[in-house]
Amino acid sequence: MRAGLLLGDEAVANGAIDAGISGAFSYPGTPATEITECIQDYVARRGGWRQAGLFAEWSANEKVAYEEALGMSYAGRRALVCMKHVGLNVAMDPFVNSALTGANGGLVLAVADDPSMHSSQNEQDSRFLAEFAQVPCFEPGDQQQAYDLTRAAFDESERIGLPVMIRLVTRLCHSRAGVRMGEPNAREEALKPGPRPRPDPNDWTLVPINARRRFRRLVELQPELIEDSETSGRNRLRLAGPHGVITAGLAHNYVAEALGETADEVSVLRISQYPIPPGMLRRFVDHCDEITVVEEGYPFIEKRLNGLLGVPGKAIRGKLTGDLPATGELNPDIVAAALGRPLAPVGAMVPDLASRPPQLCKGCPHADSFRAIMEAAGAYADPILFSDIGCYTLGVMPPFRAVQSCVDMGSSIAMAHGASRAGAHPVVCTIGDSTFAHSGMTPLIGAAHHDADITVFVLDNSTTAMTGAQDSLACGERLVSVLRGLGVDPGHLHVIEPRPQNHGDNVEIIRRELGHRGLSVIIPRRACIHIKRPPQQVRVPSAGSCACETVEP
Amino acid sequence: MILAGVGGQGILTIAKAISIAAVKRGWSIKQAEVHGMSQRGGAVQSHLRIADHELHSDLIGAGRADMVIAAEPLESLRYTHLLGEDGVVVSSDAAFVNIGNYPPVEQVLEQISYLPNHVLVDAERLARAAGSGRAANIVILGAASLHLPLTADELEDAVAELFAAKGDKVVSVNRRAFRFGRNAAAAYEDGLRRGGTSRAVRHWVETLDEDQLAAAERPDAPVFDVVEPVDRLSGAEAHAVEGTLTRVFEDGRSQLFEHEVYQIVQLVGAIDPPHHVFVRTDELLSPEALARFPSERVVLKIVSPDVVHKSDADGIVFCRKDDETVRHEMTRLIRRHQGSARVEGVLVVEFVEREQHGLGGELFVGVRGTREFGPIIAAGLGGVDTEYLARSMRPGLAVAKAVATDITAEQFMDLFRQTAAYDMLSGRTRGHRRAVSDGELLRCFRAFISLATRFCVDRGDVCPDVGELEVNPFSFRNQRLVPLDGRGRLQTAVHRPPARPLDKVEKLLEPGRIAVVGVSAKGRNFGRIILDNVIECGFERDNIRVIRDGADEIAGVACVPSISALPEPFDLLVVATGADQLPALVAECVESGKVHSAILIPGGVGETEGSTDIEQAVRDAIAKGRARDGGGPVFVGPNCLGVQSRPGRYDTFFIPENKLAKRRGEPGRGVALISQSGAFIVSRMSVVETLDPTLTISIGNQLDLTLSDALRVVGRRDDVHTIGLYAEGFNDLDGLDLLTTIRELSEAGKTVVFYKAGRTEQGRDAAAGHTAAVAGDYDICEAGAEAAGALVADTFSEFERLLEIAAANHAKTARGVRLGAMSNAGFETVGMADSLAGRRHRVEIATLADATRERLSSVLGDNGLARLVNVRNPMDLTPMAGEAAYEGVARTLLGADEIDALIVSCVPLSPAMATTGAEIAESRSLADVLAELNAETDKPLVAVVDAGAAFEPLVTRLREGGLAVMRSSDNAVRSFGTYLTHRCARASEEPLTNETRTPTGTPGG
Asked: Which residues of A touch B459 (CB under 8 A)?
């Protein structure tokens, strides 16, 4: 038996590897990034994807990733696709439809929600999307479960012929604990077409006549999914006292912590597999008078339990009743208070300390870009400054204040186009090279086609910096070629180097292009300091080499 | 436990190491990390739980944490609410300052030190000591290990395992770091138990050496006194300041911007600056940020390395605090300067309402690293008038200044109390209320002195040195200091050159054997004059060699062909060749090892065009010798007259006998003259021929031996009690060494009379700040020398007078400053009374006791002067007085308890006295009278002869009788007064004055 001290993300990765996947597909996004990185590390240690029999490179975006995984499943091999919650919005189209086509090789979607929005734009709950697509969803509560459930999800996917979602939350993704791992499945023939028979093309070609049939199949599968939830043993029901707690996933840990030695007195229904098992729920509700629903994310179970009208005669508490906060992640204190068991007297008062917000790194190329943009745009009374998702979103902070929007990946260009059609000028958008490859190209094709009066800055730092410097698919000269290919007028396509010493020149170029009534694209190109700095560049300044020129007479 | 820090400090590595050790025990682990956006320079934390039972939650509830382990002090405080009752905080004391409002470091550390269970370690320093600054996190782990439920061995092995892949060196560095951390923490806790304050204990821990830190046993803490003022910066504060300096350096700047100066003075806890925000040229100030300014108005200041004095350059704008006005004014301000200067941005500062306007409403404090004296501090009236006041007020009144390494904050406070600035700031003058408390001033001075001694010095490769740092002005609010402008500059501090072997200088002054090179066989060149001088002084010919190829002997002295050919090492070589031969000769001295010291007479080295190469070659050769065992030979000069040594029986001064009487037969009078200029000495010797100096050293260009070297060696001699010192410029840090030497000599009871030439406005270029302007090199030299105990002369004639007085009176006792004075001319007695107080002296005319008056009346009666002369002090004896009257009155005055010192003046044109050369040869003259009295009394005494050349014989006779003779009575009072004031101050006793009751109990007037 192997054991390791793993992040939740790493546990998922190891579960998938041990389940014998042939591919992992993803676009980086906190808090899911480390799943793919862990698999990439595994591949690298085996000398590459051919030797490892496992392909794990970054995809252009989540939709692409999902489709690549779906293709692998079609070919009869097991595939993992991972993303953060808002990434699933991007991949929603193939996700929902793959429930109709079904999976051939096991297809597992690991999706990481971000309650409290540590690094996200919203805290949407992916369980709703699993239910919406009508596919099974497993929700691990700890690192061991993350490993176990991921492995099981592949078997389940192949058994039932549907993709299976693993729902994670930030706190689990980024927490480390001991995990015991089983013997990995064999993978000798991984690079040959799968042993599974090729699907019937009619099942995977969703023209209406096929789609209707496949949708009916999906609906007809639901009782089987429910039955599995009731009997798989992944959901646990323990009836004891009249006070009951329904928990799911990570929330269970806080409940266990709060109940401590009184755990035996309290009835607990612990959900790890969806759809919610109605039979278990029925027995639980019949047994308990007072039920607290503790779940991370939206009140998914609580809403299903209450329906529209509630359960007569039972007190049901949770996020809907305000017993738990409706926003933000849970923690031991919140849960303990909701269960009427405050943990301990609150410790020392927090002194009033100066806060230390995140900021652009010292020497970041984005800082120089923003300074130049703001100086040039300063000539206009009210420039519109759309931006996108990445490190550069920190340009919203003083001293830059160069970011007025951050909505979703790739939105800046399309929003800029829209605003320009309302007559705004100048309209500026800033988007990183990786975000541009993710979903900036599509809106730019339109903007180029219509010669939209916008100035697009593709901030090329040659990496996906925010999530930890993953490779970017369109940077350097490749990015220039892409932009030309998308139809950008070469006369209004510039590459500048954002450095303090180039500030004046850069401002001049930007000023000129802001004045241009049509599409301009400027690429401020300088590598992120985190990928550029060679290892021993930490310099201790010596007095002898001090840059001062004045010397005492 | 909670692990806390700033992104990039490696707290996850701490967590990993603990986890590895816990896994080995088979324990459960839960560790929640922070990834993503928060890692970008923001606060980061991690929850880590380890237990021998099952754990559920990844997060720790409030009040349930056993430890906070922090890589940064401010961050450690952020999570104290999670700590349980017995929870421990283990933190590095190194502040990571990447936010503008970082509080004073000591304040943060103090807050931590209030926690009942805490440990502070200087992780950065210990990590560097262990071999790598990057191991700071492991130092903290080591510190935390004292309180972890795992053994030190388990944790250290975990550290080794963690770094195993990086090689043995990294592993051993981190093992050391772990031990250093653990032992430093143990020492810290021990120190606290022994009653030390956190600050005092940290200072003590800083003194532990690597062996103590690496030992398995924890070092024993001393018993700490309860009150323990620690003057200098703590390591934590220094570290924080260093961070700011490093950022400036890495920006490629030498100038510090105003807000950076504010940050430094705030970090060291000196002063809270007004609210301010630095806005770069290409940035905008947000309305929210503007709204946070507490004042109704704001001040906009241009920030540019080219604009030093902002108010002179139209670089300051006051405006209303509304968004539009500020934006408009900022744009205008930047445009106004952009053409002529590199504009970095605009500093927006809270408008501080001044409590007092006009002169005295502001304070200036600055420090500066100087080449000659090292770091200095200056403080005085601030604002735009600083320089004007410093120039126009007498020294010490506008600005207090001192060598920072040589003074405590309390001593500097005493100096500052003597300034007009203090009078005004403390509300002692009309129209002024007290503006600032003494405690606040002391705190400020302490911080600046600490900054100066820590940063304005040569710090090797550690970090850039500070050239200058000043706040001008400070304004005041509720008796607290508020800085309104600040500037600073990085500059490489001077290195201290290697020390000269002074034992060889002792030999130089009394050599056993002398060699001379550059002697002409026939003509009377300098070399030949010197040789003759040496022989004339009585130096044995057998112990002299002339270095000359092709000759056997010159003037009876044997010749050798080269230095190398000397039979054995000679104590002294006198080089009287042309300058162009110096490099080869100096090199030969060094290479052959045949001379211990040499006097290099030739001029024109390094001063004239083309001679800089010679200078460099000589320097190089000297340095080569210095690097050897014993330090090689020492060299006086070049460009000097060399040495006249009575005890050494030699003289290298090539002045013909007929132009300067060498008085070879006379014994030395215990006076030594040390001068950078040979001519200065011979002029003084010509003016006062009877000085008969024991030693005279013309030090020349100081290519090797410096003024302080000469002073130190000469001052230590028993046969020298008074030293006249003339300096023009100093070698690197030699000014400082000179001050130290003066202090030593002064404490040993010797007198140094000092004249510093070169009052040019050094360092007052455009880049220099107020500190340089008000505390230039001359000012500092003068103030420093005075503080060190020298008698400072402002003029050449003052130098002569003081030297003469000091030499004549060195054996006397200076009890007080009550003068007795007598003359035979009315104008003199009036003039004396007019000169009682001056810049450096304050003396009194003694109030005569009744007994004295009676005795004087009787003396006057005996001499038939009773009706002509009133009994008073000064005594106007009238031209009718003869030697007998003089003798009687002088004896009475010297015998009076209420008189501490006496001036006897005579206008020698009086017919009643023997004063011409012929007269004094025949009869008992005043010179004979005073010589007797002088021998009898232990009270200081000077004579005054205010007359022309006809009376030189009398003057000479007086001087030969051991008296100091002044040539006018007013100068006599000034110089004698200065001497007495100085002697009394040196004895550091309150001098007796008319206010003081005399020992006999005679009531004063």
From this structure: 543
**Which of A121, A385, A546, A551 is the best substitution to test chain B (most B C-beta atoms within 10 A)?**
A546
Q: How far apart are the C-alpha atoms of B870 and B873, rounded to whole Å?
A: 9
Same CATH fold, A236-338 and A2-231? yes
Q: Among residues 55-114 of chain A, which lie with CB inside 8 Å of chain B? A: none
- Tell me which residues of chain B, numbers 352 to 371, contact chain A at a CB-CB cutoff of 8 Å: 370-371
Residue B52 at interface with chain A, using a CB cutoff of 8 Å: no
Matching residue, tokens 């929600």: A113
Looking at CA atoms only, how far is residue A324 from chain B in angstroms? 16
Q: Read off the pTM.
A: 0.67
The C-alpha of B767 sits at a distance from chain A's nearest C-alpha, in angstroms, of: 8
Domain-by-domain residue ranges, chain A? 2-231, 236-338, 365-527
For A350, which residue in chain B has the nearest alpha carbon? Answer: B81
The pLDDT tens digits for B420-479 are 888 888 877 777 777 888 888 888 898 899 899 888 888 876 678 899 999 988 888 877
- A250 in contact with B at a CB cutoff of 8 Å? yes
What are the residues whose beta carbons fall under 8 Å from the beta carbon of A481, sequence distance 6 or more? none
CATH of domain A236-338: 3.40.50.920
Q: In chain B, what residues touch A357 (CB-CB under 8 Å)?
A: 42
CA B259 to chain centre: 28
Alpha-carbon span B310 to B303, nearest angstrom: 9
Q: Do B99 and A347 touch (CB under 8 A)?
A: no
What class does CATH assign to A365-527? alpha beta
Q: Which amino acid is at B688?
A: V
Going by C-alpha positions, the residue among A19, A61, A29 that lies closest to residue A155 is A19
Angle of helix B123-130 relative to helix B235-250, nearest 10 degrees, comes to 80
- Could you report the per-residue pLDDT of B186-212, keeping only the tens digit for each? 999 988 887 778 888 888 888 888 888
**Residue A113: closest CA among A30, A222, A182:** A30
State pLDDT tens for residues B889-933. 999 999 999 999 999 999 998 888 888 888 888 888 889 999 999
Q: Which ipTM score applies to this complex?
A: 0.85
pLDDT mean across residues, chain B? 86
Alpha-helix runs per DSSP H in A406-515: 411-421, 433-439, 441-449, 476-485, 503-515
Tell whether A207 lies on the interface with B, counting CB pairs under 8 A. no
Percent of chain A with pLDDT over 70: 93
Question: What DSSP line would sit under B227-277, residue for residue?
Answer: -----SPPHHHHHHHHHHHHHHHHTT-SEEPHHHHHHHHHHTTS-PPPPEE
**What is residue B281's predicted lDDT score, i.e. its pLDDT?**
76
Q: How far is A541 from chain B (nearest CA, A)?
A: 5
Contact B779, B401 (CB under 8 A): yes
Q: What strands, in cross-sheet order, belong to the sheet with B722-727?
A: B650-651, B642-645, B695-698, B671-675, B722-727, B751-756, B791-792
Most A-contacting residue of B53, B282, B286, B469 (CB-CB within 10 A), to test interface? B282
The residue among B871, B867, B908, B909 whose CA lies nearest residue B888 is B871
Superfamily of domain A2-231: Thiamin diphosphate (ThDP)-binding fold, Pyr/PP domains (3.40.50.970)
CB contact under 8 A, B82 and A360: no
Chain B from 58 to 77: CB within 8 A of any A CB:
58-65, 74-75, 77
Q: What are phi and psi of A396, to 5 degrees?
A: -70, -25
* Residue of chain B whose Cα is closest to the Cα of A390: B37
Residues 1-30 of A with CB under 8 A from B: 5, 7, 30
Predicted confidence (pLDDT) per residue in B945-987, tens digit? 998 888 999 999 999 889 999 999 889 999 999 999 988 887 7
Q: In whole angstroms, what is the distance from residue A15 CA to residue A184 CA? A: 9
Residues 6+ apart with CB under 8 A from A255: A245, A247, A268, A294, A335, A339
